[in-house]
Fold this sequence. Notes:
The structure holds 2 protein chains of 2 kinds.
Chain A: H1 2-6, E1 12-20, E2 25-32, H2 34-38, E3 42-51, E4 57-66, E5 74-79, E6 89-97, E7 110-112, E8 124-126, E9 131-133, E10 138-143, E11 150-156, E12 162-164, E13 169-174, E14 185-191, E15 199-207, E16 214-220, E17 225-231, E18 245-250, E19 255-256, E20 262-263, E21 266-272, E22 278-287, E23 290-299, E24 310-316, E25 321-326, E26 334-341, E27 347-353, E28 359-364, E29 372-381, E30 395-398, E31 408-417, E32 420-429, E33 441-448, E34 456-460, E35 466-471, E36 476-483, E37 492-496, H3 499-507, E38 515-518, E39 520-521, E40 524-528, E41 537-543, E42 553-558, E43 564-567, E44 577-586, E45 589-599, E46 613-616, E47 621-624, E48 638-647, E49 658-661, E50 667-673, E51 680-683, E52 691-700, E53 711-714, H4 719-741, H5 743-750, H6 765-774
Parallel strand pairs in A: 9-15, 38-45
Antiparallel strand pairs in A: 1-2, 2-5, 3-4, 3-6, 6-7, 8-10, 10-13, 11-14, 12-13, 14-15, 16-17, 17-21, 18-19, 18-22, 20-21, 22-23, 24-25, 25-28, 26-27, 26-29, 29-30, 31-32, 32-35, 33-34, 33-36, 36-37, 39-40, 40-43, 41-42, 41-44, 44-45, 46-47, 47-51, 48-50, 48-52, 49-50, 52-53
Chain B: H1 2-15, H2 40-62, H3 70-92, H4 114-162
Helix pairs in contact in B: 1-3, 1-4, 2-3, 2-4
Amino acid sequence: xxxxxxxxxxxxTYLNITKDLALQRLLVEWDVGKPAHxxxxxxxxxxxxxxxxxxTTVWTGFHNVTLGKSAKPLHWIWDSDLPLECMSHLVRIRxxxxxxxIWSQWSxxxxxxxxxxxxxxxxxxxxxxxxxxxxxDITLCCIGRKGRIIKEFFLVPAVHVFSHTNSQVGLLTVKNxxxxxxxxxxxxxxxxxxxxxxxxxxxxxxGKQPDTPNDFSCQTQDMRIVTCTWSKGGETYLxxxxxxxxxxxxxxxxxxxxxxxxxxxxxxxxxNIGQQRIYNITVTVENPLGxxxxxxxxxxTHRIYPAAPFQLWEECTDTEITxxxxxxxxxxxxxxxTEVLQPNGKVELHNSSDTHLHYASITLGGxxxxxxxxxxxxxxxxxxxxxxxxxxxxxxxxxxxxxxxxKLDIWREITPVLGGRNVTLFWKQAPSFRANGKxxxxxxxxxxxxxxxxRESISFSPVHNSTRISIDNDSYRISIMAKNNVNYSLPSVMxxxxxxxxxxxxxxxxxxxxxxxxxxxxxxxxISWEPRHTYDSYIIEWCKVPMLQPCDLQWKRFGPNISSAxxxxxxxxxxxxxxxxxxxSVANRASLLEKKTGYLRELPPLLDPxxxxxxxxxxxxTLSWDSYPTDESQPGFVRGYHVYVSPIQEDCLLKGSxxxxxxxxxxxxxxxxxxxxxxxxxxxxxxxxxxxxxxxxAYTGGGETPIVNFIYIDTPFNSNLMYLLxxxxxxxxxxxxxCHWKMKWVKERCCPVIPSPSKSKVLSFKAFKVRSLxx
Amino acid sequence: MAEDxxxxxxxxEKDQHLAINNLCRTNHLPEWLRGPVTGPGxxxxxxxxxxxxxxxxxxxxxxxxPPGAEILRRLASTHLKVRGLLNNLEGLxxxxxxxxxxxxxxxxxxxxxxxxxxxxxxxxxxSYARFMAKLSAQLEGRSRGGRREKRRSHRGSWLLxxx
Lengths: 775, 163
């Protein structure tokens, strides 16, 4: 039997092919003889598919199956990448039992006809209006009428295609298709003629599957209507009736959710819930290319998203606000949060437990009087908090006015006049001062300390910050208060001592204080002073604009433990000298302690010293510039002077000087005077009878300006030399000339010729000698 | 409006990729767009059908395009202009009310395939552009003739007055 089976074949006895045009697939149905079924054989089937335009098999596959005893035919599906309408498709099958080594004969080709065999009245394009997914491939065909050739077959907009159009059937394949920014792609086909019936047109659509609904979540405001929301997802490039459609389904009740989806930026769907509390909602989004789902399982009581509180109103005092609001949905216990925005931008949050009351409230305390606060409220479910509601509309509330708090900072400038003093009083709001009202006016009061005078008082409007009063030489108490609609502030008090006291202090030398120079920095002028334990505060005063009268006096107050400060003012200008007075204050009496003077930044002097006197000697020149000022009219502290000297024609090499090279590389001799009061200088070792140029420059901490003008001098000729020249040269020459001229006279007078007897021939010495000898 | 009609057709033809083989530029115009216009009643009838045709074209294009597409905006704009002209015509030349049961004759069956629908729309817009161009020329001609007549009658009365 085994040998018999080895060589037994079971040919295909039945083969039927049908086509599913919607899915573009062939449905193959076949069978072998009953004996194979009865034997329950395991069989292999080889299936081949062929198309009429190609004489080759386009597909071969194997299908293995164990036959059942019931004689049911076998089925198989083949998906075509080419529309089945384009051409006829043929299928054949052969079989082999697993135990056998022999394949059966092939069945006959069974065909499903394409439209190419029909008698069409015009060319036809397939597929028609197909929707394909971006990135996939598509093959289109154009079937011409019988006997016609396809001349043109193309797409608009043009895409790269693999085409084959030399027959009755034209084929186009587009790989990795993209939508190209157009709603659809048009297909054009033309036979080799020009009449209207020679053309066929179609379109196809390129799109995307819908995205899975993102952020799918359901909630309720009132426990009656539930709203589910989700993100719309990306562009699918399919529009109109091809747009994604959404449906919601409730899994526990197995019913469609009766809601209408609406989508703008987000999608939502709302419906009235009944008694059901637990839900399992699935949202499905579907378009012709596919479908996606998302799910949310929830208890409605855990998904309460309250409506925003509304109708806020308030009651307030100077330091408290009681805020009230309404809820839209009664019957839900809420927990609320109040946000308070302060004028300084700081935000505070206050929580309050709510009840089911229609009106809710919260009291906010510790507030500042006459100050605006902006408040708003939001609420969440008190049990099973899900999320905060939206904020209510904001309400801006101003607390009521109260007595001004803190004190004014006051100061004075005393000017002695005949019979008394003029006192200019200044006031400003100290950092600790609060007006606590719409506006404050000021009341200035003064009276004698020892009494015996009427108290005088003047009121000033908010715009005023100073006044001048005249007092005699007695001691006065001055008091300044701020006033608003509620009350007066605490008074700020100052005592102006008796004039004799001031004189006494001056006598002690406190008014003759030495002015100490201070330095400026990028951030201001640094002032320090000797701390003294007797004072409860220190005050530094200075003029904002020292050159003006009045000079706009400024002051700053410091605590008893401070002994230095960086005075910074936007009004400080480089090159301007500011004078600072440091006062100590105790029991409202101020005493001048120290004087400082300085510049924010010193600048070089604007004007050079004018040399008023030039005293020349043979080898020296003395320069004087007595009237040069070194006071506050200078843009810096004058530290000294530089004297520059040079001969006109050459570089300077004077003894005792330093070399100074000008920008033009000429060399000057430089002398330095380090005493600003020393306004006279002598340059020595000059050559006589020589032209020199000189300059005198003042310098400050900011340096000096470049040399522009020179003084020119000629040193005198040296007369001693002249005398020496006369004595040593001229006089002997004159004498020699005279002598030469009167030589004979001189000779006769000086050295007359003395006759010499020896020279007489008569009286010659030789003869005498002979004679002498003979004697 | 003639210029607007021409611009709409040109845009549509290009946007729908129909500028091939003069597909849209048919010589077989729909009967109701052939002209000439014989009177306000005829013009009103044409504009009524054109308003409907524009609605149909817009509805078809809404099924193909994203909201806010330029073609939809232009179709809506032209539709508004046609409706505006219709309102003016109806105000100036009120139409007699139709007897009950009397309706406009139905048009040809609308194509169902996408390409055919957009081609049909293109041909209607082409025909409309030609119709409006002819109408504009017709009105311009009448206006010139009217001005000539007026000038002639003025001169005549002046001559009469002088004599």
